[in-house]
Amino acid sequence: MARTVLVVDDSAFMRNLLKQLLEEDHEIVGEAENGVEAVELYRELSPDVVTMDVVMPIRNGIEATAEIKSLDPASSVIMCTSVGQEEKMREAVEAGADGYITKPFQKPNVLQAIDDVVGVEV
Amino acid sequence: MNLDVQSLRTFSRLAHSGAEQAAGSLTTLTGFDAHVAVTKVEMATRADVEREFRERDLVTVHIGFSGAIAGRTVLAFDRERAVTLVDALVPGAAEDPDSNLATSGLKELGNIMLGGFIDGWADFLGDGIDITTPTYVELDAGRSLRDVIDESSRATNGFTENGFEGNGSAANETPTIPDASDAEIDGEHVLAFRNHLEAVDEEAGFYIYMLPTHDSVVTIVDAAGNVEDALPVETYTSFSQMISEGAGQASEDLTAMTGIETEVDVSRLSFVPIEGVPMELTDEQRRGVVLEFSGGPSGYIAILFDSESAESVADALMPGMDADAAMRQSALQEIGNIVTSGFLDGWADTLETTIEISPPTYVDDIASAIVDPLVTELARTQDYAFLIDSAIVTPDETFTCDIYALPDERELREAFTQLATEAD
Predict the structure, then answer these.
(1) A82 → closest Cβ in B326, B337, B352
(2) Distance from the first to the final alpha carbon of chain A
(3) What global pTM score does this model have?
(4) Which CATH number fits domain A4-117: 3.20.19.10, 3.20.20.70, 3.40.50.2300, 3.30.1490.20?
(5) Shortest Cα–Cα distance, B84 to chain A (Å)
(6) What digits encode the pLDDT tens for the residues B166-210?
(7) Do the bridges between strand B34-45 and strand B285-295 make them parallel or antiparallel, or are there none, so unpaired?
(8) Would the CB atoms of A83 and B357 count as touching at under 8 Å?
């Protein structure tokens, strides 16, 4: 069964790429280009999974993740970012991130991360 | 050997005033109005310095020096420029630029320019520096710096077929010529001074390179440095290594994104007067992104492509897609973002800190103009900059990606100190 996914990234190119990678297996229910939009859309759509960029204008992905987690502790947020610094990963985990994959990634990496976070449907 | 920023400033000032002296000599001798565009102190690997020579078709004049300090200086210009100079020095000689008369003229020009370049260092140290007779070496693309210096050493010691034209030695005895390896500071890195001279109204430039020996660097640091701030030179080379590794990661990420094999072509750390930074970049159009990073250290980074490369990268990122201009721009921003992270993440992990990276700002302008506002901002608090430049290329020349990072000088020094402490 397809999961509903909210794609959050300030890059139109990356949002497009993620949609291409995921749409065969999952349903993209929304796109946000900053942390504020991400929180608003999460409230509205309650997706199964959020793929969340870290570096974004207005509000970054770590702050947005913390807010989504405070709204819904059962939410599933996977950081999809080019930032691979160990300290940043720790910050993401502290904010409540459930997974962390670094760009550039391949389709299997993203699908596996979603399966790891929300479990494989039988 | 320890090295401090005060010494680097002194190195830079001496090299710059020496190059100005050389430019003045050039103008007097040839009538070409020349000025010093930029002077860099480079902490580079031997391979990188060699590459600079290897990739250009250069005519060079070398002299060795010894005494208070020792090493080699090289005056290099493009072949076409050399012919113009020969004609100005010896009217009519350009008809046969390979003649003994023509090369003799160039050697004498080099002798006078490089001699003037060295004089300032001797005055600063309050001691004599002897110079050898000049050697003329045509540097066909493909020859290494070591080849050239070896040939230069042989020629300077009298083993050339053409003999010498004139005697540029300031001493009665022939000074001992340092071997190329004497310039190495740790078996791989060299401290090189690169002065870029420009002739007014002409785009083609001249370069003066100076490669002092390891012992000479110690001598100058002792005379000019601030012992309290001095750090082991290995700290700088460790950082250079970190830059190389960052460039390597960025190259891997570019390959993963585009599916095109890439490799790091050059990766350098240099110390430059802040106003000289834009002159280090081309006046040709570039597209890409500028990002600000903050943490330890803070600064700016620019990821730039020439127009053709930018199109190639966008095509590779979106194969078969008829993407509009906005999507292509977004793709370039994302690649800039990923390359920057690849470049900086290793620094953050090594320094056990975080480096925040801003969202990428798309730029499309001549390269020097792109960095101008970044330099203006940094110039509020510093008069010199550590410039980090790397180039990532594809073997088949599909694209070239230039990376320029300009960290805050004070914060980078703190990072150096941390690296030195950890090394202890």
Answers:
(1) B337
(2) 8
(3) 0.79
(4) 3.40.50.2300
(5) 50
(6) 333 333 333 344 455 565 656 666 777 777 777 665 655 678 888
(7) unpaired
(8) yes
